[in-house]
Amino acid sequence: MTMVTKEDFLAEGRVRYGRANPERIESELYELIIAKDWSAWSAKEEFKDDRANWGCGGEVVSARRVTEFPPVWTFQRFGMSRTELSDGRIVFTGGEHEDYYDPDFCIYNDVIVRHPDGRHEFFFYKLWDFPPTDFHSATLVGEEIIVVGSLSYQDLRRIGETQVYALDTTSFAMRKVRTSGAAPGWISRHYADPVGDSVVLWGGEIFGASGKLVSNQEIFELDLKSCLWRKRAIGDEALFPVSSSDYLLHKTPRYGCANPERVTNPFWLEMARRNWPPKQARLHFGDFLPPEPQVERPKFGSPEYPLGEDKEAEAKRNEAILAYVLACQVAGPRENKVWTALRDEMAVVRRADGSVFSIAGQLKAYGAEALDEWSYNDIIIRCPDGAVEIYAYRLEDFPTAWALCAMEAEGAIWIFASGLKSEAGPLMAILRLDPETMAMTRIWEEPPVRVITSSETTTLEQGRIVFATSFEPGPEPRVSFDPRELSWRLEP
What we know:
Layout: H1 6-12, E1 23-25, H2 28-36, H3 40-46, E2 81-84, E3 90-93, E4 96-97, E5 106-107, E6 111-114, E7 120-124, E8 137-141, E9 144-148, E10 164-168, E11 174-176, E12 180-181, E13 186-188, E14 191-195, E15 198-202, E16 205-207, E17 213-215, E18 219-223, E19 228-232, H4 244-250, E20 261-263, H5 266-274, H6 278-285, H7 311-328, E21 347-350, E22 356-359, E23 362-363, E24 374-375, E25 379-382, E26 388-392, E27 401-409, E28 412-420, E29 428-433, E30 440-443, E31 459-461, E32 464-468, E33 478-482, E34 487-491
Parallel strand pairs: 12-19
Antiparallel strand pairs: 1-7, 2-3, 3-6, 4-5, 6-7, 8-9, 9-10, 10-11, 13-16, 14-15, 15-18, 16-17, 18-19, 20-26, 21-22, 22-25, 23-24, 25-26, 27-28, 28-29, 29-30, 31-32, 32-33, 33-34
């Protein structure tokens, strides 16, 4: 990468609107900001630019983008959509950086295309061709990405209307879609799926005449041929081919009753095909639980969350974050939870035959899916022909764990799980999965020292599975496991 200078930053580092539909940009500065994962503040620090955008009195209005010193451009954003194309490109649209009190708060109206080789293309738009958009949905239909909804700046919200744009993935021109019918209104933070020639919306929040956001508990369909909105019935099997009775019977996550138990219930299988989060399934079936408690985030610069690099300030910030996380923990009893294939910390093995094994994972007890916190010990197989298989296991055959990784070697898939959720026994489980029978065998040979069970640091070298013993760079020893001899050794 060519050296980026301060002059480059001063010339193109600030957010601006495009001059065409689209205006294509090539920028080594933006590439650097993405590669370094710089926030707007970090970029200003790097290039020693102390000019701040304090215009508009901190209001959430679009004029903040056109002050003397507009916000600094960054890829660190909330509410930005990510859409994968069949050729391997990934399209990122809009989003916002920071909250209204930050001088670099910005709602974006650009499109960023990441190519398989890692390079990026940047597309800017005029305000009237594509307004600042965040917390929208982006649904691929044919060669277009249908962008629905936005929270946006307060002065750009249009009560009663629903913002819809179509992005051409060949030219990256943006087209406004004019719709009619029973639209949801000014909606954001919703789910969207393609269904035939339509886009269907679940959940989200609608900005109403009262000036407040209200939860959406209806299902809306936009027919892309007629551009007509209509409402769909709760639990409509044409949208999700599982009956309400099957949902109620099978919605709850559970452990298996054999080694393995092949799961045949239609709800789990369809959830795995769709990759739906629990909340979307709840919305579809009208399974509304009490709202999560409104927990106020720690405010930067407050006595509870002081600024500064000294240890006392850092300790107070850590204490405030921990208190916030604990306040968000609203997980309920198991019978109220909903099974999902969309999880954190899953181990993934991609096999030579094209099948993908997604192993275990968990939902954590905070965030958008906090009500459905669960530690899984099942395996989901996605076959090249689109078929899905799910296998569940007894806890004694496949214990749940905080961290795990998996590697294929010697005709088997080896699973290494640490931080086991049990009160007694070893802290690590080594499991051999037979990919033909899907039976799990426990290996009782533990490593000589603690190892990091992470896919990011585990490698296969000359038939041995090699683990790091520390995340820190340096001369820390590595440890390897021999899947033929079922033995460990310290690596030189």
